[in-house]
Design brief:
By secondary structure, the chain is α/β, with parallel strands linked by helices. It is 65% helix and 10% strand. The protein has 24 helices and 14 strands.
């Protein structure tokens, strides 16, 4: 402790010395910096301009005075104004710039004072000159009048005196313009002669006229001599020379100041360099001392660090073991998550299969009323919406674990787009939205990519546009990119190795704010408009983006609030030669046509429906027996094996998750039997995971279908494997029938009903109350059935606006 105190005592004087030196150095630096500051260029320029202006004023004044001496020149008032302007310009120079020191300012002020006194004396001479000049002009203007008086008046004095006066006046007129000194002597002698003659003739009656002539003659000679004397004293050019000297002195002072500034700057730089060198030296010394101390400290801690390294190594090994255990636990958790999602998929999709299937059957039943059919359709649409939400969540989970792959096939792009347009057009028309599909003429008809994912992308984007657009239009644009061309005259067209296909969906909706753009493609995130609508899960756009990236493109968006949005992307497609027969051989059954039987003279095919859920088995029995198949049911895999052996079905619809023996094991056992190899087994599963498809097919199943399925899809699969064609219910041209019914609708056709009834119909249509409208339609008499059918068709297509147009005349 004492050593530490001694060291502090030793260092204290040195610290004070450094503090004093630092303070002095700061003051010196402040002085040098202040002296190094540049001059105020603007003020320096303005003051120099003031000097130039004063010189111009003096030069102009000198020219005007010379004109006044030798010619008429300026008037007295004009010259007085010019003198005041010149004095003001000289007085303005008294405000010398502050960047000049006191001595320099005193020198300039002294010169200005001298110039001011000189200018004052010159100004007084100029005023005296102007006054004499004015009086001379007055006399010169009066002399011609005197001469005229002598010429026209009858003079009573002698002839010699009269001639002398006339000569005097004539010489005075000439002298006013010539200013000849010799003429002055002649005039003086004539004045003397006139005076002597007037003494001899002192009774002259015109004595006043003679006196005026003598008076003006003396005045002209006297004023001319004064003006000539003043002209000799005027030296305005000297004032200009003095201002030139003043300007040179000012510029010399500026130059000296700038030189001194440069010198101070040089000293400032040198002083800074000295300070930097001193600081660098101190830093280097401190670094040397610090390095020595660090070396000693490092040497002292080496052994301790080695011990710590050994301990840390042991800890790292333990940490690695814990990390490996956590990784294994995470993998197990991921597997558990996959199992949970598979179970949830099965548990959710199985009841949905029954709901959607039975509602489809009920919709086709012609015995139910329109109100009940509408209720069933609502249940079906709600089930489809629930299925979409489940599929979105499962798709997102598969994307997160990287289990999404492309299932590329050849398909007809035009047919796919037409089916999407037909599916969405009714909804667009019900909302008074114009739905347009703008397809470029050169886009290929057949492409090779994942049809399901491309279809889902387009439906999701158009569905969002329909959801948030309340008026205007929605446009889907499809076109080729770059220089790709299609040979329209050959269906088996050939492209280059790859080509781009551009899709865009543009709407006139509310638009998306800029601050919400970043979260637009995030899973489970919704925009403000989406949250207000309270629809969806916020997964649609995220899934679309992942699908587009998987196809080699990027989903982008441009939006203006209040004007609408445009979503666009481009996918890369492989070039393939498409066999058109493959397209037609894989055609789907038209869902608008009802299958009523099996075509041709065929035996009754046996189909075994295997499912542990009785509702699912009942649905399969109803669908298949109506067509003409013989159906037997099995509740588990054990029963399926037993029935197969005793009944010998032609095709088996096998659920994969069942108690006792599941579908995988039952399929293996049936396929292992002699006849089982030729028996078609189509797997029915509620799982949405693609990897299960591989497992199912590897178990021996011939094909794969997911629940819930559509009736047309099921019958198409069965027809494909049993090689059979179907008979379809005879259908009426619905479109032409509807058009005929609409043509019959008019205000005249509605006139058969009472105005009170039409007013009630108008009010119900204005409230979009379909139930009340249908109730009112039941009041239409039987003989006007076509009128009722036409109005009912408008209700089914959500065209209450047409009903309002037909009934508005009543209101």
């Amino acid at each position: 402790m004492s050593l530490f105190a001694q060291e502090n005592t030793y260092r204290s004087p040195k610290i004070y010395i450094y503090m004093i030196l630092g303070g002095l150095g700061s003051l010196l630096m402040l002085f040098l910096v202040r002296q190094s500051l540049p001059l105020d260029g603007q003020k320096m320029k303005e003051y120099h301009q003031d000097i130039q202006l004063a010189k111009q004023k003096i030069s102009s004044l000198e020219k005007d005075i010379l004109k006044s001496i030798y010619s008429t020149g300026r008037t007295y008032k004009e010259l007085e104004i010019e003198l005041d302007d010149t004095r003001q310009s000289i007085d303005k120079l008294k405000n010398t710039p502050i960047f000049l020191n006191e001595i320099e300012q005193n020198i300039l002020n002294s010169k200005l004072k001298t110039q001011e006194l000189f200018f004052t004396s010159q100004a007084n001479l100029i005023r005296e000159f102007q006054e004499n000049k004015f009086n001379l002009n007055q006399s010169c203007q009066y002399i011609p009048k005197l001469r005229n008086d002598f010429n026209y008046k009858n003079l009573s004095f002698n002839q010699d005196l009269a001639l002398t006066i006339k000569d005097l006046l004539s010489n005075l007129i000439l002298q006013c313009y010539q200013k000849d000194r010799v003429a002055n002597l002649t005039i003086k002698s004539q004045i003397s002669k006139i005076k002597s003659l007037t003494k001899e003739n002192y009774f002259v009656r015109e004595q006043i006229l003679v006196n005026e002539s003598i008076e003006h003659a003396n005045k002209v000679i006297d004023l001319q001599e004064k003006i000539e004397d003043i002209s000799r004293q005027l030296k305005i050019s000297n004032l200009e020379h003095k201002l030139n000297d003043f300007e040179k002195s000012y510029l010399q002072n500026i130059d000296d100041i700038e030189k001194s500034i440069k010198i101070y700057r040089l000293f400032t730089y040198l002083f800074l360099l000295i300070i930097i060198i001193f600081i660098a030296q101190q830093i280097i010394n401190n670094l040397i001392k610090t390095n020595r101390s660090i070396v000693k400290i490092l040497e002292g801690f080496t052994e301790e660090l080695e011990k710590k390294v050994e301990q840390r190594t042991a800890q790292l090994e333990e940490s690695i073991q814990n990390t490996e255990a956590a990784l294994a636990q995470a993998q197990n958790a991921n597997k558990a998550k996959s199992r949970f999602l598979a179970n949830m998929s099965h548990e959710l999709r199985t009841p949905l299969n029954a709901i959607l299937g039975f509602t489809q059957l009920m919709c086709r039943d012609g015995s139910i009323s329109n109100e009940h059919r509408e209720n069933v359709q609502i249940i079906n649409r709600s089930g489809e919406h629930l299925l979409k939400l489940i599929n979105d969540i499962l798709e997102m989970s598969k994307i997160e674990v990287g289990q999404i792959t492309l299932n590329e096939t050849k398909f007809d792009l035009h047919i796919m787009l037409k089916s999407i347009e037909d599916m969405l057009r009714l909804k667009a028309e019900s909302n008074n939205i114009i739905l347009t599909f703008d397809l470029a003429s050169n886009i290929p008809q057949y492409i090779y990519t994942d049809e399901g994912k491309l279809r889902q992308i387009i439906i999701n984007l158009l569905g969002n546009a329909l959801k948030f657009t309340t008026k205007g239009a929605i446009v889907l644009t499809v076109k080729l990119q770059e220089n790709t061309q299609v040979e329209n005259n050959n269906l088996d067209f050939l492209f280059s190795d790859t080509y781009g296909l551009y899709f865009s969906v543009q709407d006139t909706g509310p638009g998306i704010p800029t601050e919400e753009m970043e979260q637009l493609f995030s899973p489970f995130e919704q925009t403000k408009v989406g949250r207000v609508s309270n629809e969806g899960t916020g997964l649609g756009l995220s899934i679309c983006q992942k699908f587009v990236e998987l196809m080699g493109g990027k989903l982008e968006v441009e939006s203006v609030v209040g004007e609408g949005s445009i979503f666009f992307f481009e996918i890369l497609l492989k070039v393939e030669n498409t066999d058109i027969s493959q397209i037609f051989n894989s055609r789907e059954i038209d869902e608008t046509q009802r299958v009523v039987g099996i075509a041709g003279d065929r035996p009754q095919y046996r189909i075994l429906a295997v499912d542990d859920v009785s509702a699912s088995r009942l649905l399969l029995r109803k669908i298949l027996t109506e067509v003409g198949f013989a159906v037997e049911e099995a509740g588990d895999g054990q029963q399926a094996i037993e029935l197969y052996s005793s009944w010998n079905p032609d095709l088996i619809l096998m659920d994969m998750r069942m108690p006792i023996i599941d579908g995988y094991e039952a399929t293996r056992q049936i396929k292992s039997l002699p006849k089982g190899k030729d028996t078609i087994i189509i797997a029915l599963t509620a799982s949405a995971f693609e990897e299960e498809r591989v497992v199912i097919l590897s178990a021996g199943c011939d094909d794969f279908m997911r629940k819930p399925f559509h009736e047309a899809e099921l019958l198409e699969k069965i027809g494909k494997y049993l090689n059979i064609d179907y008979l379809y219910e005879e259908t009426i041209d619905v479109v032409s029938n509807e058009l005929a019914l609409l043509e019959e609708l008019s205000q005249e056709s509605l006139a058969v009903m009472s105005s009170e009834w039409r007013s009630q119909l108008y009010d119900a249509a204005a409230r979009v109350d379909n139930q009340e409208i249908l109730q009112l339609l039941s009041d239409i008499p039987q003989e006007y059935e076509s009128l009722a059918q036409g109005l009912e068709n408008l209700v089914e297509h959500f065209r209450c606006d047409k009903i309002i147009d037909l009934t508005k005349s009543v209101n």
